[in-house]
Design brief:
With about 280 residues, this protein is of the alpha/beta class. It contains twelve helices and nine strands. The strands form two sheets. It has a seven-stranded mixed beta sheet. A two-stranded antiparallel sheet has the order 1-8. Helix 2 crosses helix 3.
Length: about 280
């Protein structure tokens, strides 16, 4: 069963009375090399897949993993997956919304030992929520390898000071090292999206690369810094941290080596962590 063959995809969809659902961002791969490359880069001994679709990537993960658990939100695809993954008894499909899944409970129940890797072909509209759900879950995932819209990957992997750098870039850098692996053209999917995609990998740190007093305050500083991009960092932070005072905030920023007129997009995760530690001395 060639799951990247457009004719085979149509046959399967017709057999089960299915149509592509835009609300779930369903775009199935028709370039056989892509799922192979994703699995080669991201599969682990134990792998969690999000949104298996008809099982195209799942099959490749199953060839490289001891166990694969795939979470699919579309109930209509569950019978399809039972058919396409019949040859892989070590694959378990769970019908659920990944954003509502208690990841700690799932990982503990399904993967008795070993670290878990995550692989997914993520729709644009849930990319950031899914990534944050994974990162904030407290599960020590080994890596997260995802196929996402090119512009999203550009933002997530952007270094401090670049035009694509934003809050998500800084937050992700706190959890792991993000890198773009390869580009995927719109023509590699059916139906074809309007933009190209990129496969990116986030290799998670065992421990954060920076020292903080409060993760919550660190993320609030980052959120504030990028919440009003046209404002200087001093002005952006003065609103949400008014108890510290504008003059003191300016002094702290200058003590970190930046001009008082600097904007948030110039600061790395190390710089934001320095601000957090200095703010903690005042609270």
């Amino acid at each position: 069963m060639q799951l990247t063959n457009p004719s085979e995809i149509k046959r399967i969809m017709d057999k089960h009375g299915l149509v592509f659902k835009k609300k779930f961002g369903q775009n199935f791969l028709i370039n056989a090399a892509i799922p192979e490359r994703i699995a080669e880069a991201g599969a682990g001994e134990y792998t969690l897949e999000i949104g298996p679709g008809i099982g195209t990537l799942t099959k490749e993960l199953a060839l490289r993993s001891k166990k694969v658990v795939a979470v699919e939100i579309d109930a209509g695809l569950i019978p399809v997956l039972s058919e396409t993954l019949d040859a892989f008894p070590h694959v378990k499909v769970i019908e659920d919304d990944i954003l509502k899944v208690d990841l700690k409970t799932l990982v503990k129940r399904e993967f008795a030992s070993g670290r878990v890797s995550v692989c997914a072909n993520l729709p644009y509209y849930i990319t950031t929520p899914v990534l944050m759900h994974l990162l904030e879950s407290g599960v020590p995932f080994a890596s997260i390898t995802v196929l996402v819209q090119k512009e999203v990957a550009d933002r997530i992997c952007a270094p401090a000071g670049s035009s694509d750098y934003g809050a998500i870039s800084a937050v992700v850098a706190y959890y792991g090292r993000a890198e773009k692996l390869f580009r995927v053209s719109a023509g590699s999917f059916v139906p074809a999206p309007k933009v190209d995609s990129t496969v990116m990998k986030l290799t998670l740190y065992d421990h954060p690369p920076v020292e903080t007093v409060s993760e919550e305050r660190l993320f609030q500083i980052i959120k504030s810094a990028f919440g009003k991009r046209r404002k200087t960092l001093v002005n952006a932070l003065s609103g949400d941290f008014s108890h510290i005072g504008r003059d003191r905030i300016e002094q702290i920023i200058e003590s970190s080596g930046f001009d008082s007129r600097v904007r948030g997009e110039k600061l790395s995760i190390e710089d934001f962590a320095y601000l957090e530690r200095e703010f903690a001395k005042i609270n």
